[in-house]
């Protein structure tokens, strides 16, 4: 083998137990393949035949270390460490992040080979939700962790009470990033945790409290008490959905004044002008004045952070207007020239915001992501002139929510002006029709994340057909009771009607893309040499017909195209509705779909017994690569105990929703059981445990609720199950530990039984 001076990575990827690295070697492309699970090393190449017997072990250690460091998949890294001792040492030396699992009782099993770890996550230790100080010798825990992970600079910690922070924080005095986690109902004391943390971590530059419940008025005093640490902070995340009230105007002023060097600031605020201390013009201006270096700013009302679905009949306007005017927004944007990501979701009307958004394009040249909620008048195009947010040409991600006056013409203007968009989300914009979505689809190329009620209707999915082979993630509100009127709205709709300026003032070839095979062509639809006619047939898919200069059709249609790049699908389903119409709505062919999230929301107490036996999970077998599922019934409300005559209790609803889950080849499942809010109970039922045990391919199962020990023992029948945990990471969490569903001893006995089993691989 000739001397190797350097290997320049071109692309890195991992698939299951293979590490694949494409590299450039002396101007020739080679493929280095290592099947680490089988210790079968080979060098598959395109070049000299003399190198056919060369293995990866012949590479210099520095280069091999860089290759292993480029692997991000955890299982692939673990497999690479099993190849040989050399690989084991290199993998351990290059791993930078570790999430520690296991039981507090088993300190002897804490690994000591990850001395290079810089990011350590201790929030998922078992039993979940129990503080580290609940062990018999808390001081020993701190000593063992410091010895095993001496290089930690970033820590994620479940802190149920101040004693946990007192125990852990001194172990790593040079911590730079800390994320605290704890459900609201499990906080024993308030205010002390932050002061203890800040006092012990003098080098702190990033603090994340987005999953840690505390009183909002505890944060400003803690930051003011240690001004040197506060001024050193560059990242502060206070975007916590469990806050009953957001930060008020005076608190925002104090926080931003104390943390003047912030580059990232996220906070849940109180924008409602009916409350004393609401965030208005003065508070927003103070943010730009006190923190001029901000690159990321995210301010949202607490009601916007909840997962509650809005009223589908709501027109988009609220009763109260926010006390934020256009002049203030212009002043704020002008004071933040380094802004790259901006999110403002105020949940109260901000009217005629277009002029302020135009300033973003000139005053914030680095802005790439924009999220707006309850902003009206963001673009009001007149003839071919672009205005408002449509002038933000550098945007790559745009999310708009509850923009009451956004019409199809505004949607098309955004498509024309924001030509770099890779992600686009629309929520609750009632004036947008299927025609507008279809026109925008022809204008867009790239990834599209669509979140709009009409996207669940068959006609709307058809409207996305021109770009469906480019969509990587998709959200659908499953509203199946639509009529044929939506399809009729598209009858006779012709894009060619816009080629004289009705949509834009420039030629149509710049506003829409011509589809050829699997690529979009910018050569144009309005040129003299080639034009493209679009027609819509209610009995078939969209059709694009090329017409050459002689008037003959080239027969280039869309036909039965697949969702080739769709990897992630998110669904919202009202309680009582079925999942079975999903495939027939246009999503029957998703060959690469890997992950699906289903959120079911509603009150079961208002519904009769379903007329069919199952929800329809078995229909998902049509997706061959589906391996991960989030099934969230947490906002499904019902009777945990005996239900009135003619109604079903939650155990029967769980059976309804979980029937068919065993038919899927899932390897990872997150499940939120339904709840009874009257008794604050969210527990796994007997039918649910019985159905989950039929998921024989599962390796990871996380139940976001409680469960009886004997129900959990059913899960031991899943042969390859490696990781199971009960997590009460929701609000409000259970308030006591006396239930048999929550005892630490029960969780420990189950985990011991799980770990005693032999795993095939």
Structural overview:
This protein has 761 residues and is an alpha/beta fold. It is built from 22 helices and 27 strands. The strands form 5 sheets. A 12-stranded parallel β-sheet has the order 5-6-7-8-9-10-11-12-13-14-15-16. Strands 17-22-23-24-25-26-27 form a 7-stranded parallel β-sheet. A 4-stranded antiparallel β-sheet has the order 1-2-3-4, with no helix packed on it. Strand 10 (235-238), helix 9 (249-258) and strand 11 form a beta-alpha-beta unit. Residues 59-96 form the COI1 F-box domain. This is COI1 F-box domain-containing protein.
Task: Describe the protein's topology.
Blueprint: E1 8-15, E2 18-25, E3 28-35, E4 40-45, H1 61-69, H2 74-80, H3 85-94, E5 97-99, E6 119-121, H4 138-148, E7 154-158, H5 162-168, E8 177-182, H6 192-200, E9 206-212, H7 219-225, H8 227-232, E10 235-238, H9 249-258, E11 264-269, H10 281-290, E12 296-301, H11 302-305, H12 326-334, E13 341-350, H13 354-363, E14 369-375, E15 397-401, H14 408-417, E16 423-427, H15 434-443, H16 458-463, E17 473-478, H17 485-490, E18 514-516, E19 519-521, E20 531-535, E21 543-547, E22 568-574, H18 581-587, E23 595-603, E24 628-637, H19 650-658, E25 668-672, H20 686-692, E26 700-703, H21 709-712, E27 723-726, H22 744-756
Parallel strand pairs: 5-6, 6-7, 7-8, 8-9, 9-10, 10-11, 11-12, 12-13, 13-14, 14-15, 15-16, 17-22, 22-23, 23-24, 24-25, 25-26, 26-27
Antiparallel strand pairs: 1-2, 2-3, 3-4, 18-19, 20-21
Helix pairs in contact: 1-3, 5-6, 6-7, 7-9, 9-10, 10-12, 12-13, 14-15, 19-20
């Amino acid at each position: 083998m000739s001397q190797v001076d350097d290997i320049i990575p071109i692309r890195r990827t991992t698939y299951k137990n293979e590490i694949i690295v494409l590299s450039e070697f002396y101007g020739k492309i080679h493929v280095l393949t290592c099947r680490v699970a089988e210790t079968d090393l080979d060098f598959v190449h395109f070049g000299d035949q003399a190198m056919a017997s060369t293995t990866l072990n012949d590479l210099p250690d520095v280069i091999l270390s860089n290759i292993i460091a480029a692997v991000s998949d955890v299982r692939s890294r673990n497999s690479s460490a099993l190849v040989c001792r050399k690989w084991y040492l290199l993998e351990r030396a290059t791993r930078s992040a570790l999430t520690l699992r296991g039981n507090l009782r088993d300190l002897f099993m804490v690994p000591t080979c990850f001395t290079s770890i810089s990011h350590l996550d201790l929030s998922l230790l078992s039993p979940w939700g129990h503080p580290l100080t609940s062990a018999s010798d808390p001081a020993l825990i701190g000593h063992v962790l410091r010895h095993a992970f001496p290089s930690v600079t970033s820590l994620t910690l479940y802190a149920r009470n101040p004693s946990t922070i007192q125990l852990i924080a001194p172990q790593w005095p040079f911590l730079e990033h800390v994320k605290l986690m704890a459900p609201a109902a499990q906080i024993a004391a308030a205010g002390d945790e932050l002061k203890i943390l800040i006092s012990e971590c003098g080098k702190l530059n990033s603090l994340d409290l987005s999953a840690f419940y505390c009183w909002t008025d505890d944060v400003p005093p803690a930051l003011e008490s240690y001004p040197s640490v506060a001024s050193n902070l560059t990242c502060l995340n206070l975007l916590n959905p469990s806050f009953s009230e957001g930060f008020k105007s005076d608190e925002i002023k104090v926080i931003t004044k104390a943390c003047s060097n912030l580059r990232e600031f996220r906070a849940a605020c109180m924008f409602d002008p009916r409350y004393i201390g609401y965030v208005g013009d003065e508070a927003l201006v103070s943010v730009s004045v006190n923190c001029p270096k901000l690159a990321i700013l995210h301010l949202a009302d607490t009601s916007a952070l909840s997962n509650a679905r809005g009223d589908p009949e709501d027109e988009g306007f609220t009763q109260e207007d926010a006390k934020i005017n256009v002049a203030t927004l212009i002043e704020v944007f002008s004071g933040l020239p380094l802004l790259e990501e901006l999110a403002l979701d105020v949940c109260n009307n901000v009217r005629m915001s277009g002029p302020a958004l135009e300033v973003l394009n000139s005053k914030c040249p680095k802005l790439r992501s924009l999220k707006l909620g309850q902003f009206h008048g963001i673009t009001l195009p007149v003839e071919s002139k672009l205005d408002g947010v449509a002038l933000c040409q550098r945007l790559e991600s745009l999310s708009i929510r509850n923009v009451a006056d956004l019409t199809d013409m505004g949607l098309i203007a955004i498509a024309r002006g924001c030509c770099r968009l890779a992600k686009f989300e629309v929520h609750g914009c009632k004036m947008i029709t299927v025609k507008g979505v279809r026109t925008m689809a022809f204008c867009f190329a790239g990834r599209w994340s669509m979140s709009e009620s009409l996207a669940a209707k068959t006609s709307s999915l058809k409207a996305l057909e021109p770009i469906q082979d480019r969509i990587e993630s998709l959200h659908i509100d499953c509203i199946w009771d639509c009529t044929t009127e939506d399809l009729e709205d598209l009858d006779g709709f012709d894009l060619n009607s816009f080629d004289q300026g009705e949509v834009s003032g420039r030629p149509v070839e710049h506003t829409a893309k011509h589809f050829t095979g699997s690529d979009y062509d910018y050569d144009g639809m309005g040129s003299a040499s080639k034009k493209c006619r679009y027609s819509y047939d209610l009995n078939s898919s969209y059709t694009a017909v090329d017409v050459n200069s002689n008037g003959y059709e080239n027969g280039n249609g869309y036909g039965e195209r697949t969702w080739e790049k769709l990897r992630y699908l998110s669904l919202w389903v009202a309680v009582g509705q079925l999942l079975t119409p999903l495939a027939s709505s246009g999503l029957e062919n998703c060959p690469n779909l890997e992950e699906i999230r289903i959120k079911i929301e509603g009150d079961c107490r208002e519904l009769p017994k379903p007329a069919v036996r199952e929800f329809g999970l078995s229909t998902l077998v049509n997706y061959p690569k589906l391996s991960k599922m989030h099934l969230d019934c947490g906002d499904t409300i019902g009777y945990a105990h005996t239900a009135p005559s003619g109604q079903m209790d939650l155990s029967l609803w769980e059976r309804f929703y979980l029937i068919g889950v065993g038919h899927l080849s899932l390897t990872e499942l997150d499940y939120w059981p339904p709840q009874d809010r009257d008794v604050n109970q969210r527990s796994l039922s007997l039918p649910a445990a019985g159905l989950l045990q039929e998921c024989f391919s599962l390796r990871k199962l996380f139940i976001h609720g409680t469960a009886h020990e004997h129900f959990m023992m059913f899960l031991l029948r899943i042969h390859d199950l490696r990781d199971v945990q009960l997590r009460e990471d929701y609000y409000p969490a259970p308030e006591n530990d006396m239930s048999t569903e929550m005892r630490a001893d029960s969780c420990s006995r189950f985990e011991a039984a799980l770990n005693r089993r032999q795993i095939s691989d």
